[in-house]
Each structure stands twice: as structure tokens, then as C-alpha cells.
Amino acid sequence: MIQSMTGYAAASAEFARGAIHIELRSVNSRFLDVQFRVVEELRQVEPALREAIGAGVTRGKVECRVAWTPAADRRRQPALNQELLAQVLELQDRVRQAAPGSALLSVGDILDWPGMLGDDALPVEDMRVKCVALMQHALDEFTATRAREGDKLRSMLESRIDRMRELVAEVTPRIPELVLSQQEKLRTRLAEALGAGAEQFAERIAQEASLFGTRIDVAEELSRLGAHLDEVTRVLGNGGPVGKRLDFLMQELNREANTLGAKSVSSETSAAAVELKLLIEQMREQVQNIE
Questions:
Q1: pLDDT exceeds cutoff 80 at 218
Q2: Chain centre distance of CA 151
Q3: CA nearest 278: which of 266, 270, 289?
Q4: What is the SS3 assignment for 277?
């Protein structure tokens, strides 16, 4: 199974204190690039969520949004942190014992005390466990969407591979015939150019024809094209994070197709080279989206 780097998933869960919503979306990238948008209440669980994503995703630019919606009754009435209030008042008594002239704390001072209205603060460890569990659920769906997209990419690549194999199979049997034909044309032209003295240069003409045949023979390029196509098929069959390997193979295929076009001496091989390059470019664009 191969996976696309394009994916989307969302998961939500409600608890007594409120609801958590996690949203994942990704596009292609050379490496794994994870960006977070986390509400302040859940900022402390970000490292655990980042670790969960890193364990399940190897490539792609991943954007993760984590939202927190407090329960309705929690939004209506902020509550005092009774434990902290008792500690503050005890400290105030101690200070006044040491410095009797000290002013008493006002109601505003007490309410502004850090954490005084925070007995409703989210317990970090509890929320970490809940968020990681929800993230795993989102990642399962995220992976499934990327796999479905990966299946589509694989089908497209396989159809292009089949067509490329057809082109190679059509051209390969014609190569020896084309080489011999072009060699004969060269011999004829050289003989015509030399005129009556052509016989004494017969060996030289044969050498030139042989060298020319070597330069225009594309059997080796076609053989390498077939080998590269076999490797692409093997890599697709193995699955996993194969995007970088496939990208390299696209470069190799393109190199052979360019050489085929450059050495071509017939409209048939030229047309095949052009179509091969078009198919390879279509594959290369899609390979960029494979993890």
C-alpha cells in the first residue's frame, strides 16, 4: 500500500469539562513538516501530539488544529480556586503578623491572583491522555484517506507504465531493421560522393557505416527503459514510503527517453520518445504527491 501526502481527517470528543476537536490536513513536502495551531488551554499537550504524528507520518506538510470548547455551565460561572484562596489568605495573615501595618488584599487583588479563577483549569495529564487518544483516532482516518488517494495514484501510474511498455515493445523489434537501413543509406551516399574512387575506400565506408550504426542504435536505451519500468512496478508493489525512490526512477526514465529522442533517425522512434516523455512527466507530477 502506498500513501498520498494529501489527506484530511477530523475527530471530536466530548467530556464533562468540554469538547476537544482535532483537525488534520496535509499536502506534499520533501520532508515531514508539522505545524500546530493549539488553543492555549491545551498548549502543554502539543509535544505528545507532535510525537504521535511523527510516529504515523513520514513525509508531508501536516497542519494540525486543536480546539477546545468549554461545557456551557463552565462558561457561565467562573469558580474560585478554593485551595489557592485559603493559601493566599493564610499568607496574608502571616504578613500582617510580621508587619501589622500592611494593607489588606482587596477583592480585585484576590481575583487577579494568578490561578485564582483556575480551579476549573484543565488537568494536564488527564487532557494529555484524552488528546493523544483522540489524535490516534484522527490519525487512523487520516491514514485511511491518504491510502485511498494513494490507490488512485498507483492506478494512474500503472496505466502509464502499461502504455510505456507498449511503446517499448512496438519500437524494439524495429531497431535492427532501422539501423541496417540507415547504414545502407550512408554507404550509398558515401559511394555517390566518392564516385569512381569509391571501391578503394570500401573498407573506410564500411567502418563509417558501422560507427554510424552504433551511434543510432537505441536498443540499449530501450532495454534500460524496460528495466526501470520493472523497478517502478516492483517499488509500487512493495508499498510503504516510496515517494523518493519513485522520484529518482522518474529521473532515470526521463534520461533514457531523452537519449532515445536524441539518437532517433526515424519518425517512429521520435514519436515514441515524445510520448514516453509526456507519460513520464505525467507520472513525475503524481509521484510528487506520494509519501
A1: no
A2: 14
A3: 270
A4: helix
Asked if 235 and 250 count as a contact pair (C-beta separation under 8 A), the reply is no
| Cell numbers standing for residue 70 | 468549554
Q: Under DSSP, is residue 50 helix (H, G, I), strand (E, B) or coil?
A: helix
Whole-number mean pLDDT of the chain? 83
Q: Tell me whether residue 201 is exposed, middle or buried, using C-beta atoms within 10 angstroms of its C-beta: 0 to 12, 13 to 18, 19 or more.
A: middle
Grid cell, residue 151, equals 490507490
- Tell me which residue of 283, 220, 211, 212 sits closest to 249, measured CA to CA: 283
Q: For residue 44, what is its C-alpha cell?
A: 502543554
- Closest by CA to 180, choosing from 204, 205, 214, 203, is 214
Q: Using alpha carbons, list the distances in angstroms from residue 15 to 12, 20, 45, 128, 130.
A: 10, 8, 17, 13, 9
Strand partners, 91: none
Phi first, then psi: give them for residue 19, nearest 5 degrees: -130, 140
The three-class DSSP label of residue 83 is helix
205: its cell numbers: 565506408
pTM greater than 0.85 (yes/no) = no
Confidence of residue 269 (pLDDT cuts 50, 70, 90): confident
Cα–Cα distance, 216 to 229 (Å, whole number): 23
Write the single-letter amino acid at 11.
A
Distance CA 151, CA 156 (A): 9
Question: pLDDT grade, residue 25 (50/70/90)?
Answer: very high
Question: DSSP letters along 224-252, please?
Answer: HHHHHHHHHHHHHHH-SS-HHHHHHHHHH
Are 290 and 242 contacting, i.e. CB atoms less than 8 angstroms apart?
A: yes
